[in-house]
Structure formats: structure tokens, C-alpha cells
Design brief:
The chain is of the alpha+beta class. The chain has helices spanning 5-25, 95-100, 158-175, and strands at 35-36, 39-40, 56-60, 70-76, 79-89, 112-113, 119-122, 126-135, 138-146. A hairpin with a 2-residue loop joins strand 1 (35-36) and strand 2.
């Protein structure tokens, strides 16, 4: 009744390999879509901003043709992971006023202006950008991004938010039919 040493040594290695494969393959997260709230974007740009992509879906009230101010919420299950506000106005909006406003519609914590083609401010938990865009809804378009899963004092995502807005805002402008 001799036991083979080779088998007993191989078993723990096979066991660890199978645990690794099972733990990696059993994730309920899925890849982010290439279109977020009607704007095509590289899926990896949003990944650092969201904790989970499980049961990813959108609540989108935006009608680009009508250019009526409206929200688009991206949810993972019941949790809002990205909140957008698409807004059209006749005159340019003061972004710092919006960011520091005590309301929840466009509030961004610790806002700072960045050097960018479009007037943009970045905060620890969101961003706001504005650009001239003549449509049925007005002469200026403002986009607010809020990332409610990022803590108000968490400074680690500011660069991720900036990178996202540098890609998402110009891509969104292309979808609006500005004249």
C-alpha cells in the first residue's frame, strides 16, 4: 500500500489553481458598456469611478433632439454609480456657483478649474463642463457628473474624474447636434 508522492504533491497545486480560476471566474461584475447615457466612450474610462457593474442599467430621461434639461442615472443594482445632468440654457452658467450650491442637482465637492478646451471644474466626487452649443434648448450646454460612491473627502479619484470628463464631454457634444 504505497502512496505515490507525486500525486500528493500535485494535488495541492491543482487545488490552488482551481481555487484561483474559480475565484476569478465567479465575479458577478461585467465589463462596462461602450455607450454611457447615449455617449460612446472607451469602457475602461469609467471603471475607476464605479465599485460594481453588477446589474448595470440606466435611467435616462435625456432627449437630445428636444434639448430639455434632464438626468441620466447609471445604476448597479439599486445603487446610483454615475449621475449625469444634461442642461441647455440661453446664457452661460457660472460653474463654481453650481458646484458650491447647496442643492443636490449639480453639487461637486472641493471644485477646481482645469486647463481644458472647455470650461470645466473637477471635484473629489464629480465634475461640471460647459460649452457653446446652439440647439432648440438654448445656446449653452452644461454637463454635470456626480459619482456618489466616492467619499466627499476622498482625493484619490480626482485624476480619474478628470480623465473621464476629458473624453466624455467632447464625445457628448458630438451627439447633440450643435449648430
Amino acid at each position: 500500500m504505497k502512496m505515490r508522492l507525486r500525486i500528493s504533491l500535485a494535488c495541492p497545486i491543482l487545488f490552488l489553481s482551481s481555487v484561483f480560476v474559480v475565484s476569478c471566474g465567479s465575479s458577478t461584475d461585467r465589463e462596462l458598456p461602450g455607450v454611457i447615457c447615449g455617449t460612446r466612450i472607451a469602457p475602461g474610462l469609467a471603471r475607476p469611478l464605479v465599485k460594481s457593474t453588477e446589474d448595470w442599467h440606466e435611467y435616462d430621461r435625456v432627449d437630445r433632439a428636444e434639448a430639455i434639461t434632464a438626468p441620466c442615472l447609471v445604476l448597479s443594482g439599486r445603487e446610483v454609480v454615475l449621475g449625469f445632468r444634461f442642461s441647455w440654457r440661453e446664457s452661460a452658467t457660472d460653474l463654481m456657483y453650481l458646484a458650491k450650491n447647496t442643492g443636490s442637482v449639480s453639487r461637486v465637492t472641493d471644485p477646481h478649474a482645469i486647463d481644458f478646451t472647455y470650461k470645466t471644474i473637477i471635484g473629489t466626487d464629480g465634475a461640471i463642463s460647459i460649452a457653446p452649443c446652439k440647439t432648440n434648448g438654448g445656446k449653452y450646454f452644461t454637463l454635470t457628473l456626480q459619482v456618489p460612491q466616492i467619499g466627499l473627502m476622498d482625493q484619490t479619484h480626482r485624476k480619474d474624474i478628470e480623465k473621464f470628463m476629458r473624453a466624455y464631454f467632447p464625445a457628448t457634444l458630438k451627439t447633440l447636434g450643435c449648430r
